[in-house]
């Protein structure tokens, strides 16, 4: 029933609610007979009904309301209605009222909508105000608040009166829970301005709760005082509502004031009172005060509930107090509280997120041993964690266990699995899962397709990704901005900028918002191919459309300008981003370091390095490697080795490219300046080796020097990996350095280095 339809309804001059005149026993008996004919479900029931009505000379409309009231079967009731209205019978408002009640009781909403639309057009068919109560309650219970509000408005217009108190309170409660406080106020005000019987204490309490949920606790208190007088709060229920409101708002101090006030007025705090206070303290992480309130609660003879314990446990986990949370768990078990699956799931989720997957599995086993049945939320965190680890055998086992517990994996679970497979590079396995779930009747959504396409594009399988787009469209799944961004990026990676541009234009023409992800994908493409003017136009369009440029946008633009040797423009973008506090990421800084190095300005590059460190952004392996490589190319070995040793002291592990630059640099510049220059440990060892009478080859000396430096800086593992990769023989210098490294790590007891000897 639409609002446009409601607007055409006019009240019949303050029409009063209709009442039915007395029905004779004879008519009641005939109605019973009609019901029996319907319940018999005979093939010729229509003929039997028609004949009986002709024999008794009774109009169906005279007993329709009785039939609908007595039949208690919505299917048979509808058959009766459709048969006689189809033959031209005109039912009155009482008949329609009874039919509406029947349909509302069984929650047949399509039929209910149709009957409502049929009966509100005329005064003759108009249902009673009482019947609307049932309809409103049914709609509210089903969450159809808009329709419930329409029926309420219809009753108000048609009868100039609000529906019954229970129906109005039900609607009020639904609107408040649904967050529509404005509509709730409209209903409440109509209830209050009536004769005083249209609202009660519960009505006020609902509104106060709604206001408190929005943080308007003071307004909620004023509403109470408006009804009962200044400083008058009538009972503990209202106190609990206000206290809970303050706690949810984070104002525990005012909640405590109310706690003291209610005590002075002779009210005793109950489980709800203490529970609200504890919940508020848990929100702000004040667990010392939580313990104090728990002591006060128990000394007052009020026993904590499982819900209170669960709140404390959950909050301690959120604040990272695992040991304390597990103590709460033990307390619950000791005191006879049976933990529910929700509590266990909270622990499992926390353990998985913190990397304690094995402990999480133990908790899952405990759930089974306690006689509880794990649900999907018990398994999903574990499945996600093992996917991240790449342990898909365990994932398969968990999926089987989940099915054995009666929980068929849903789309979300499979999405987690496919995401993990793609992240591990197993795109074909993920595609197989996609095929399997489709045979199960589940249809992948745009998020799943996006993950699969992303994996294919990263492997250069752009044509397979395009086939997935075709499949999406065939399955009526509309590609969103993320899907387009993935395809654009895939074409850019494969070197097809033209197709990427066409996709970007197609997305905009179809009304799909590219968002920051879509624009970034296109900007990345333009920068990769040196089209900085087009990239800058994309940035300008983003600004005009008020799309917030993120760190990736700025980093990509800076890197693009650097690769075009346009350091001035790169610095301009960096300065603009820095003013907006959006440049503090390692990629942007590293791009600038690269820009200065490309121009041979090592001093400028070092200034950027020091600035990023001062701003709390640690350089990464790429940053240091660019500096080391550039210094080596310019023959500045002292500076290169200095950056290398700084890198090791910062616990940043070098890679093969770093080693390659250093070895080439030392091999091509073997004459080390001796006087007036402060050399580094790396060059000291290197000079000693190449000056030795044994004549160590320069490249071998370079590698040995690097291995020694790594070990002396606590990176024995990296050193051993380098030696293994280059098949280096173990010489005396390397051996001493490795032994030193093992001892520094506390591994001198024969573990590791003695085996090497």
From TrEMBL:
PPR repeats lie at residues 164-198, 200-234, 235-269, 270-304, 340-374, 375-409, 410-444, 445-479, 480-514, 515-549, 550-584, 585-619, 620-654. One of its GO terms (biological process) is mitochondria-nucleus signaling pathway. Pfam families: PPR, PPR_2. The chain crosses the membrane at residues 700-720. InterPro entries: PPR_rpt, TPR-like_helical_dom_sf. Keywords: Membrane, Repeat, Transmembrane, Transmembrane helix. One of its GO terms (cellular component) is chloroplast. Belongs to the PPR family. P subfamily. PANTHER family: PENTATRICOPEPTIDE REPEAT-CONTAINING PROTEIN GUN1, CHLOROPLASTIC (PTHR47936:SF1), PPR_LONG DOMAIN-CONTAINING PROTEIN (PTHR47936). This is Pentacotripeptide-repeat region of PRORP domain-containing protein.
């Amino acid at each position: 029933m639409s609002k446009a339809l409601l607007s055409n309804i006019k009240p019949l001059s303050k029409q009063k609610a209709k009442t039915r005149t007395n029905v004779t026993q004879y008519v009641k008996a005939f109605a019973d007979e009609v019901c029996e004919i319907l319940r018999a479900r005979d093939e010729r029931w229509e003929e039997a009904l028609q004949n009986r009505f002709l024999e008794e000379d009774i109009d169906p409309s005279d007993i329709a309301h009785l039939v609908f009231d007595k039949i208690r079967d919505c299917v048979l009731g509808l058959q009766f209605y459709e048969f006689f209205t189809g033959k031209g019978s005109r039912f009155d408002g009482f008949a329609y009222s009874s039919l509406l009640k029947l349909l509302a009781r069984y929650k047949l909403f399509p039929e209910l909508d149709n009957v409502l639309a049929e009966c509100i057009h005329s005064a003759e068919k108009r249902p009673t105000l009482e019947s609307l109560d049932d309809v409103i309650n049914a709609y509210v219970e089903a969450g159809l608040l808009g329709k419930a509000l329409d029926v309420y408005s219809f009753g108000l217009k048609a009868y100039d009166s609000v529906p019954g108190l229970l129906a109005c309170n039900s609607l009020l409660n639904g609107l408040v829970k649904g967050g529509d406080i404005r509509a709730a106020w409209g209903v409440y005000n109509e209830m209050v301005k009536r004769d005083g019987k249209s609202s009660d204490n519960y009505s006020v309490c609902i509104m106060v709760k709604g206001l408190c949920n929005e943080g308007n606790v003071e307004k909620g208190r004023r509403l109470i005082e408006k009804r009962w007088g200044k400083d008058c709060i009538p009972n503990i229920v209202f106190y609990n509502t206000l206290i809970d409101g303050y706690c949810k708002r984070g104002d525990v101090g005012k909640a405590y004031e109310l706690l003291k006030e209610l005590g002075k007025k002779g009210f005793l705090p109950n489980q709800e009172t203490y529970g609200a206070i504890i919940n508020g303290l848990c929100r702000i992480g004040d667990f010392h005060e939580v313990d104090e309130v728990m002591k006060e609660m128990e000394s007052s003879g009020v026993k904590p509930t499982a819900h209170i314990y669960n709140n404390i446990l959950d909050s301690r986990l959120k604040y990272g107090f695992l040991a304390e949370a597990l103590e709460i768990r033990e307390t619950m078990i000791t005191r006879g509280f049976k933990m529910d699956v929700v509590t266990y799931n909270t622990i499992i989720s926390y353990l998985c997120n913190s990397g304690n997957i094995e402990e999480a599995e133990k908790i899952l086993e405990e759930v089974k041993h306690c006689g509880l049945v794990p649900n999907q939320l018990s398994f999903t965190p574990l499945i996600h964690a093992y996917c991240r680890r790449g342990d898909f055998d365990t994932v398969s086992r968990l999926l089987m266990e989940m099915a054995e517990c009666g929980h068929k994996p849903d789309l979300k679970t499979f999405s987690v699995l496919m995401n993990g497979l793609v992240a591990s590079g197993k795109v074909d396995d993920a595609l197989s899962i996609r095929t399997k779930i489709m045979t199960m009747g589940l249809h992948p959504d745009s998020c799943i397709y996006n993950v699969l396409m992303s994996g294919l594009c990263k492997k250069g399988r752009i044509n397979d990704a395009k086939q997935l787009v075709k499949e999406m469209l065939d399955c009526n799944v509309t590609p969103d901005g993320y899907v387009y961004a993935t395809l654009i990026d895939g074409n850019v990676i494969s070197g097809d900028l033209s197709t990427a541009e066409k996709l970007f234009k197609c997305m905009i023409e179809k009304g799909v918002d590219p968002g920051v992800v879509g624009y970034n994908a296109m900007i990345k493409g333009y920068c990769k191919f040196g089209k900085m003017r087009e990239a800058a136009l994309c940035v300008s369009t983003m600004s005009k459309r008020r799309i917030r440029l993120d760190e990736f946008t700025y980093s990509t633009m800076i890197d693009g300008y650097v690769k075009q040797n346009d350091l001035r423009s790169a610095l301009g973008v960096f300065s603009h981003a820095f003013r907006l506090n959006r440049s503090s990421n390692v990629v942007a800084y590293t791009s600038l370091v690269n820009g200065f190095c490309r121009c041979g300005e090592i001093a400028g590059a070092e200034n950027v390095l020091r600035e990023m460190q001062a701003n709390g952004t640690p350089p990464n392996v790429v940053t240091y490697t660019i500096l080391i490589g550039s210094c080596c190319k310019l023959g500045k070995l002292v500076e290169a080795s200095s950056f290398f040793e700084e890198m090791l002291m910062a616990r940043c592990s070098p890679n093969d490219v770093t080693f390659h630059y250093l070895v080439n640099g030392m091999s091509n510049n073997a004459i080390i300046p001796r006087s007036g220059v402060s050399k580094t440990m790396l060059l000291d060892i290197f000079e000693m080796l190449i000056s030795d009478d044994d004549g160590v080859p320069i490249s071998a000396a370079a590698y040995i020097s690097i291995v020694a430096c790594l070990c002396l800086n606590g990176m024995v593992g990296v050193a051993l990996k380098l030696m293994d990769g280059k098949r280096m023989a173990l010489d005396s210098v390397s051996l001493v350095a490795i032994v030193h490294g093992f001892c520094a790590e506390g591994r001198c007891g024969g573990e590791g280095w003695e085996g090497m000897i």
